[in-house]
Amino acid sequence: MPNTFDLAIDVIDLPAGMRPQLFVVVDTEEEFDWSAPFSRANTSVRAMRHIDRLQRVLERYSVAPTYVIDFPIASQRDGWQPLKELADDGAATIGAHLHPWVNPPFVEELSRRASFGCALGAAIEAEKIRLLQQQIAASFGAPPTIYKAGRYGFGPTTADALEALGFTIDLSVNPRMDFTAEGGPTFAELNARPFFFGRMRRLLEIPCTTDYIGALGRVGHRIHPVISHRSLAPTRIVGVMSRLGALNKVMLSPEGSTLDEMKALTSALVARGVRTFSMTLHSPSVEPGCTPYVRSDGDLDRFLGRIAAYCEFFFGDLGGDAATPDEFRASLGAPPVTGVMADEGARALAAR
After folding, report:
1. Phi first, then psi: what are they for 245, rounded to 5°?
2. pLDDT digits (tens, 9 = 90+) for 161-209
3. Which of 13, 64, 144, 263 has a 20 to 30 Å separation from 329 between CA atoms?
4. Integer CA distances (angstroms), 62 to 15, 56, 316, in order
5. d(CA 298, CA 6)
6. CATH code for residues 9-209+277-296+319-351
7. How far is CA 228 from CA 169, 238, 248, 269, in A?
8. Is the pTM of this model over 0.85?
9. What would the pLDDT profile of 219-271 be if each residue is shown by its tens digit?
10. Nearest Cα to 13, choosing from 170, 192, 194?
11. Do the beta carbons of residue 191 and residue 349 sit within 8 Å?
């Protein structure tokens, strides 16, 4: 696997006066034990019977979430039927989400490395995405044009497959994160700004919103990889820096981040000129016991409460707007014809 984001990109410069835009992206998938080895037998989608718990919260703020769905969801009526009703009503957008271990063709050996789609080899990855897109089209009546790789398993081969299959938007990049220790990609040099990419620069990337906050937040991408090296683990310096308010890496998600952290991240990025924000979460979190983030009814109440409170902050205090990936892409007009070299694009993103 390459240890850089090895793609040519065109960074999108958004107007300074633009109101912040919020996308809500739901990784919509089967339930499984996150601490256990990957298994093809985990295909239960029972949690989807409660997806209305999330939908009701978001609809209070006129947010139409993007449900990126994997093969178990797309191929079982209990998984896709609740979402089709929402999509048909214009209350949600449907995209594709590849979990390779439960997505045909089943030709690879199961491993942590093979859980990243971009590590499978171009042919296998492309065929899995094609069959997923085909299944979603059969269940929903139209093929999806939005994609998000499971476990952020996205790379140059993924881009080629998406272009060939007619996708227009990707949501896979998780800035500042490095998955190379598990055989996956790294996005450590990228930040949350959207960009066009692909051989024809027609694919739009709307990254997850992950970055550094604190007194050293603006240079966190240089400092954090050093202090988080495994040789310094006994010093617990990462935790110390976070507690002191000096440096903390935060993802915009009600899973694993506090409300204060999400608000602080958003405010910091707005000050740095970022105008697009993706709040991400997993569909099984709507039922206690299905993810590490929601283990009890109390956890569920707090989880949904964080989402509502963040929406109050974003649309109230911040004066932001709700958006869908398709709406945002349409607002940009035609993408550019040419791009910059991959390393130049990565440096441009990291420097902002």
Report:
1. 75, 15
2. 999 999 999 999 999 999 999 999 999 999 999 999 998 889 999 999 9
3. 263
4. 24, 10, 13
5. 43
6. 3.20.20.370
7. 32, 6, 11, 22
8. yes
9. 767 777 767 777 767 777 767 677 767 788 999 999 999 999 999 999 999 99
10. 194
11. yes
Whether the bond between 72 and the residue before it is cis, its omega within 30 degrees of 0, is no
* Paired tokens of 181: 């220790």
Length of the chain: 352
Q: Would you list the domain boundaries of the chain?
A: 9-209+277-296+319-351
Query: What is the Rg, in whole angstroms, of the alpha carbon atoms belonging to the chain?
Result: 19
Round the average pLDDT of the chain to a whole number and report it: 91
What is the 3-state secondary structure of the chain? Answer: CCCCCCCCEEECCCCCCCCCEEEEEEEECCCCCCCCCCCCCCCCCHHHHHCHHHHHHHHCCCCCCEEEECHHHHHCHHHHHHHHHHHHCCCCEEEEEECHHHCCCCCCCCCCHHHCHHHCCHHHHHHHHHHHHHHHHHHHCCCCCEEEEHHHCCCHHHHHHHHHHCCCEECCCCCCCECHHHCCCECCCCCCCCEEECCCCCEEECCCCEEEECCCHHHHHHHHHHHCCHHHHHHCHHHHHHHCCCCEEEECCCCCCCHHHHHHHHHHHHHCCCCEEEEEEEHHHHCCCCECCECCHHHHHHHHHHHHHHHHHHHHHCCCEECCHHHHHHHHCCCCCCCCCHHHHHHHHHHC
User: Predicted confidence band at 4 (pLDDT cuts at 50, 70, 90)?
Assistant: low
User: Residue 335: CB partners within 8 Å, gap ≥ 6?
Assistant: 10, 196, 201, 202, 204
Report how far residue 189's alpha carbon sits from residue 178's, in angstroms, rounded to the nearest whole number. Answer: 9
Lowest-confidence segment of 46-55, 208-217, 296-305 by average pLDDT: 208-217
Q: Are 131 and 123 contacting, i.e. CB atoms less than 8 angstroms apart?
A: no
What are 178's strand-pairing partners? Answer: 186
d(Cα 264, Cα 164) in Å, to the nearest integer? 39
